[in-house]
């Protein structure tokens, strides 16, 4: 099953709800790729021996990995952490997450500054480019197990919006304007 994505409605209701527009406006993998968002569907039940995951890690230089269980029972100050993850921000590096269990949402801004909600579930590996405005929340199941991948030592520094002068943001905007129709290298 491929990842699902859609344009979000403007709502102040619980961030863990789907927030579909009415009618629902789906977003294709090609549209996500144009924004620099990459996606692979892998086997989460055998991630330790997954040759495709090994190839992705090697080709993209992801040499650091850890696992995170995100749920009220395992995370101290859970609600506060979830609120922080949901604050719109960028990173200076790619954000790479592989869902091994549970589910959640990554929201990214499109070229017109609209929110796109990406629902990740077990088997979904997603790469958000450095400089893209995004945020994360769990869905109503309140559980996700993630593999976090990095190039080199992990850096979790979020830079909250606005960050138009941040070098990663400038490079991201440049990539959008110089490469219309980015070739699809994932999925």
CATH fold-level name:
Jelly Rolls
Distance between the termini: 11 Å
Which CATH class? Answer: Mainly Beta
**SSE arrangement, N to C:** EHEHEHEEEEEEEH
What would CATH call the architecture? Sandwich
Quick overview:
Helix content is 19%, strand content 31%.
Q: What report would you give on this structure?
A:
With 187 residues, the protein is of the alpha+beta class. It has a single domain, classed as Jelly Rolls (Sandwich), CATH 2.60.120. The chain contains 4 helices and 10 strands; from the N terminus they run βαβαβαβββββββα. The chain has helices at residues 29-34, 51-60, 78-85, 167-178; strands at residues 4-7, 38-41, 64-70, 89-90, 95-109, 115-121, 124-128, 134-138, 144-150, 159-160. Strands 1, 2, 3, 5, 6, 7, 8 and 9 form an 8-stranded antiparallel beta sheet that branches. A two-stranded antiparallel sheet has the order 4-10. A hairpin with a 5-residue loop joins β5 and β6. The chain starts with a strand and ends in a 9-residue tail after the last helix. It is a peripheral membrane protein. Fe(2+) binds at residues 89, 91, 95, 134. Pathway: Amino-acid biosynthesis; L-methionine biosynthesis via salvage pathway; L-methionine from S-methyl-5-thio-alpha-D-ribose 1-phosphate: step 5/6.
């Amino acid at each position: 099953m491929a990842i699902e994505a859609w344009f979000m409605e403007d709502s102040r209701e619980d961030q863990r709800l789907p927030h579909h527009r009415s009618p629902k406006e789906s977003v294709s993998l090609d549209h996500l790729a144009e924004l620099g968002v990459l996606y692979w569907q892998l086997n989460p039940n055998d991630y330790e021996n997954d040759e495709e995951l090994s190839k992705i890690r090697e080709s993209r230089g992801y040499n650091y990995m850890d696992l995170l269980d995100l749920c009220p029972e395992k995370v101290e100050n859970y609600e506060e952490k979830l609120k922080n993850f949901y604050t719109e921000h960028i990173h200076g590096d790619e954000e790479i997450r592989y869902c091994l269990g549970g589910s959640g949402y990554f929201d990214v801004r499109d070229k017109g500054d609209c929110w796109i909600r990406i629902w990740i579930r077990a088997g979904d590996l997603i790469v958000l480019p450095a400089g893209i405005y995004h945020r994360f929340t769990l869905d109503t199941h309140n559980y996700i197990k993630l593999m976090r991948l990095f190039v080199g030592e992990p850096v979790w520094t979020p830079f909250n919006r606005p960050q138009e002068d941040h070098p990663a943001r400038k490079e991201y905007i440049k990539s959008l304007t110089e490469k219309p129709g980015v070739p699809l290298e994932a999925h």
